[in-house]
Amino acid sequence: MIDKIKYGIYPNPKPDEEGNTTYQVRHTPEGTMNEKAFLSHLKYHNTYNTTVMQSSLIVLKDEIIEQLKANRRFRIDGLGTFQMKVGLKMKYDEEGNPLKPHYTDPNQITANDVEVQGVSFTPDPSFVKELKENTTTRNKFGRGAAGRNKPYTREQIISFLDEYLKEHHSITRRQMERALNITTYRAQKWLDDLTAEEFSKYYSKKQGTTYVYYRYGWEG
Fold first, then answer.
1. How far apart, in Å, are the Cα atoms of 177 and each of 2, 54, 98?
2. DSSP code of 201?
3. Using one digit for the tens of pLDDT, what is the confidence trace for 100-157?
């Protein structure tokens, strides 16, 4: 299966040397896979022990923090390297307005002016290579406008499910993903949300390692 990468086209804030507006492309994400959703995904589609996985994530986070505090980078082979980011503290005037740090003499900068401002992540080349494999930004007509598609509304998803289930009586997450050309995360999120509603019209049954979704009374 080839995954379609969605993107958007945006104008750059400054024109080029000739005064023309130029454009850039940026990835258009469809939501965020948080820890709860990640563990739920593992539970439904793999045989991993989610309790062990959750504990492992906590241990990993704590170890990364410990090593960064010890002024070390933290590298995970095949994934990438984490490194602490430091910078100058923001100053404020008498009215509480922020003042961008401005030093003309490096000797004026002391330890009191420096703070941790974040963490940088440099992906391993093999990680990026694997991410690029079996992906495309093109649709079947060759036009690369995948990222311009309008996100589906709840009404559109329900309309699709009802039409699909009238004909096929059941649907899987993968079938929905392919039919609507949406990501795995987005398809699972819609199915999870709709089946979890208080007066839901839909429910799921596990068949092997796959969850199959039905509409009450339309099983066929």
1. 12, 27, 47
2. S
3. 888 999 999 999 999 999 999 999 999 999 988 878 776 544 444 433 344 688 899 9
